């Protein structure tokens, strides 16, 4: 409970006594590149293969001749949009981006760079963390959209190449019973996950004391706490928005 | 002038500082000396606002830093320059951008003015040829000099140096000490140096305060340092074999 309280106080410091808005613009752009552009490759690989595996495994489990083959594409589409693209991508990003944020801030803390900012009268948490949070919240949804597209494409290519589903069946299943709210739901989830990953990791890194060992521990804790918070938030949001 | 009155700080059940008083004059290089773990760095952190003391006052030209409102604290902070033990340069910025950073964040100067000020600061510490290098590409002594350039770029009234010689060879240490002394004299800054380096004490110690287990045990200057009758101070000074031999002769 104490940690939770400190986390919320930390969130308050991000928006209190902010620096000039102009200061943040460049920093946010830098973070967009760091968090978003630099994560394209890993998200693309993971999403494509998860789509492919989903398609092949679904086909393997649906061998009943009374179940139409286009159901495979329907399942690939919905599981990718509703779960894999936002949640699995966020868990991958918790590992990549979360550990990077915690490590970066932790190193700045133990090398007195954060103290240097504070001595200058700069709100160090706002200056260092707010651009990361905004950068993550801007870029994660774009990565999720890309992951959803590549996941379905991966499923299509795997299904057609392996021969478990034809092009026509896949296209039919893809269009079957489509609810556009699924996209909104995925993007809402992604925004929440982005906020959780960026702030939890920043909190872990920002409050490091000690040396290299503690910075490493902070990175590990950041990834662990981010992943747990993603899973819990995923359940809560699913219950709130889909139930 | 900086005055500290009755500064006390406890971490858990361990008292780190116990009722420290003192004053530091403009144009004077004041040293706070003592062994490791005696509270020197905590005292510095209390003075610059990184640690809040349990008791006491820190006055900057009569302004109480600890009880001042946010605007006054910001104003006082902008009059401070701090050289950290590990230099605390920003890894992601080159030398020039590190020095220009306080001007970018805290002033409304034009780009040209900021560039001129940063160039002048780097020139003052003899690093005009290293402007585009990254902190990871320069030596420890150069990092300290960049740290000093960043500390003086805002024309501070108060300069704080935490162990400016740590990790440096004796020759580079002397150069850093001389640079701090020259800058103090040149700009009439109130300079406070935390150190346990004997060379610094003898070279630049216009005023020296000795801390032992959180208490101030002695105050004097480099001339009186070697002749004190404080046992703990003598043990600290003559811990070095060479100095013991010299004292015996």
Automatic annotation (TrEMBL), chain A:
This is ABC transporter permease. The chain crosses the membrane at residues 35-60, 133-165, 186-206, 218-242. Signal peptide: none annotated. InterPro entries: Permease_MalE. Keywords: Membrane, Transmembrane, Transmembrane helix. One of its GO terms (cellular component) is ATP-binding cassette (ABC) transporter complex. It holds the Pfam family MlaE. One of its GO terms (molecular function) is phospholipid transporter activity.
UniProtKB/TrEMBL annotation, chain B:
It comes from the Bacteria. InterPro entries: AAA+_ATPase, ABC_transporter-like_ATP-bd, ABC_transporter-like_CS, P-loop_NTPase. The keyword Methyltransferase does not apply. GO terms for molecular function: ATP binding; ATP hydrolysis activity. Residues 2-238 form the ABC transporter domain. Coiled coil: none annotated. Keywords: ATP-binding, Nucleotide-binding, Transport. PANTHER family: INTERMEMBRANE PHOSPHOLIPID TRANSPORT SYSTEM ATP-BINDING PROTEIN MLAF, PROTEIN TRIGALACTOSYLDIACYLGLYCEROL 3, CHLOROPLASTIC. This is ATP-binding cassette domain-containing protein. It comes from Fibrella aquatilis.
């Amino acid at each position: 409970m104490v940690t939770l309280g400190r986390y919320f106080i930390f969130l308050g410091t991000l928006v209190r006594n902010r620096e000039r808005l102009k200061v943040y613009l460049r920093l946010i752009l830098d973070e967009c590149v760091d968090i978003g552009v630099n994560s394209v490759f890993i998200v693309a690989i993971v999403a494509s293969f998860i789509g492919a595996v989903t398609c092949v495994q679904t086909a393997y489990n649906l061998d009943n001749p009374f179940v139409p083959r286009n159901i495979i594409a329907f399942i690939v589409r919905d599981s990718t949009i509703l779960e894999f693209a936002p949640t699995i991508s966020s868990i991958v990003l918790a590992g990549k981006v979360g550990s990077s944020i915690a490590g970066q801030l932790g190193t700045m803390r133990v090398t007195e760079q954060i103290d240097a900012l504070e001595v200058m009268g700069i709100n160090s948490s706002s200056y260092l963390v707010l651009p990361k949070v905004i950068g993550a919240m801007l870029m994660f949804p774009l990565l999720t959209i890309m992951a959803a597209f590549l996941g379905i494409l991966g499923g299509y290519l795997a299904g057609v190449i392996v021969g478990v589903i034809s092009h026509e069946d896949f296209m039919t299943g893809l269009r079957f019973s489509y609810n556009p709210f699924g996209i909104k739901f995925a993007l809402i989830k992604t925004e929440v996950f982005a906020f959780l990953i960026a702030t939890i990791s920043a909190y872990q890194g920002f409050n490091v004391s000690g040396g290299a060992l503690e910075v490493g521990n902070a990175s590990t804790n950041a990834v662990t706490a981010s992943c747990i918070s993603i899973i819990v938030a995923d359940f809560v949001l699913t219950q709130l928005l889909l139930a | 002038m900086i005055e500290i009155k009755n500064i006390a700080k406890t971490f858990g059940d361990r008292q780190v500082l116990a009722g420290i008083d003192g004053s530091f004059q403009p144009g004077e290089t004041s040293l706070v000396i003592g062994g490791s773990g005696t509270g020197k760095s905590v005292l510095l952190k209390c003075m610059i606002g990184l640690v809040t003391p349990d008791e006491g006052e820190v006055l900057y030209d009569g302004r109480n830093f600890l009880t001042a409102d946010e605007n006054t604290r910001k104003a006082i902070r902008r009059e401070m320059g701090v050289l950290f033990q590990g230099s605390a340069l920003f890894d992601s910025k080159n030398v020039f951008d590190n020095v220009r950073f306080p001007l970018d964040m805290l002033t409304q100067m034009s780009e040209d003015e900021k560039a001129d000020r940063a160039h002048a600061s780097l020139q003052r510490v003899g690093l005009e040829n290293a402007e585009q290098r990254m902190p990871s590409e320069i030596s420890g002594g150069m990092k300290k000099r960049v740290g000093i350039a960043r500390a003086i770029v805002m024309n501070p009234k108060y300069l704080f140096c935490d162990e400016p010689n740590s990790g440096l060879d004796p020759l580079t240490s002397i150069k850093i000490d001389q640079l701090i002394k020259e800058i103090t004299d040149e700009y009439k800054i109130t300079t406070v140096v935390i150190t346990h380096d004997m060379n610094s004490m003898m070279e630049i110690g216009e005023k020296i305060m000795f801390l032992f287990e959180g208490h101030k045990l002695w105050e004097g200057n480099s001339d009186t340092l070697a002749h004190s009758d404080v046992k703990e101070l003598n043990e600290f000074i003559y811990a070095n074999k060479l100095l013991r031999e010299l004292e015996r002769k």
